[in-house]
Amino acid sequence: MSEAAELFLLAVAAAFWPTLILVDVLAFRLERPIRILVGFLAGALVTTVSIGIVIVFVLQDSSLVSGSRSAFRPTVYLAGGVVALAAAYAVNRTHTRPREGGKPSLAQRAVGGGVAVAFVAGIILDIFPGVLPFVALAQIADLTASAAAKVAAIVAFYLIMFAFIEVPILAYAAAPQRTIAAISRFNGWLDRNGRRVATVVLAGGGVYLLIRGFVLLV
Predict the structure, then answer these.
(1) pLDDT tens digits for the chain (218 residues)?
(2) How far apart are the C-alpha atoms of 8 and 15, rounded to whole Å?
(3) Who has the most CB within 10 Å: 10, 169, 185, 190?
(4) Can you tell me the distance from the alpha carbon of 29 to that of 91, in angstroms, rounded to the nearest whole number?
(5) How far is CA 213 from the centre of its chain?
(6) For residues 15-46, b (16+ Cβ closer than 10 Å) or e, as one string?
(7) Rounded to an integer, what distance in angstroms lies between the CA atom of residue 103 and that of residue 100?
């Protein structure tokens, strides 16, 4: 599989991270969901792209990549696979639906507090890149490519990862009424099945990374 194809698959898998699904589902329960999604997306993209660039170029200039290139990828894949399987197990054991009583989660406060709060939540919830994005960033750092190409790869990865946020925004700009109806139906499906889908995607990603790591080792 080519580097670009693998990065694309990692980005698609990362899009099913439970927090992103929950934010999408919660936003479309509001009267004006698009403003909230725009605020969250802006904060998330600023944070992930900025931190991603730092991680890629720190790794690129470190001895992890330059000094032990043959061992770097397998180690990242194997560690990422183990963490992804652990995350799949945790997601499967945890309900991601909004809690009816008690203290609201950060995702609930993000969509219920207005655009500014959604922007800040997009920053806070995306400071840690997550297991699949980190594997992708490590892979980008290991590429033989120019600095501009690596930055472009980082931006492209996160644009794909946030597709569940971006597509409703773009569709709403073209056809507001049809978009609200269609996305609301889709989000109803996500509300019922999001945890199961996220578990399967994380587990599948974990198995793939473990296999890739072992193949590279031998």
Answers:
(1) 688 899 999 999 898 887 787 787 788 777 778 888 899 999 999 999 999 999 999 988 776 665 555 677 888 899 999 999 998 888 888 754 444 555 556 666 767 778 888 898 888 888 887 889 999 998 898 888 899 999 999 999 999 999 988 988 888 777 777 777 777 777 777 777 777 888 898 899 999 999 988 988 87
(2) 11
(3) 10
(4) 23
(5) 21
(6) bbbbbbbbbbbbbbeeeebbebbbbbbebbbe
(7) 9
Q: What is the pTM of this model?
A: 0.82
Task: For 115-156, give the DSSP string.
Answer: HHHHHHHHHHTTSS--HHHHHHHHHHHTS---HHHHHHHHHH
Angstrom distance (rounded) from CA 124 to CA 118: 10
Q: Which residue has the tokens 């980005």?
A: 11
Q: Which tokens is 86 given? A: 């652990």
Task: Count the helices and strands in the chain (H runs, E runs).
Answer: 11, 0
Q: d(Cα 173, Cα 120) in Å, to the nearest integer?
A: 23
- Residues 50, 169, 22, 78: is their CA dihedral positive or negative? negative
- Tokens 């991601």 belong to 96
Q: For residue 30, what is the enclosing H or E element?
A: none
3-class DSSP assignment, residue 25 = helix
Tokens of 13: 């898998």
The DSSP symbol for 104 reads P
**Three-class SS state of 213:** helix
Q: How far apart are CA 84 and CA 87, in angstroms?
A: 5
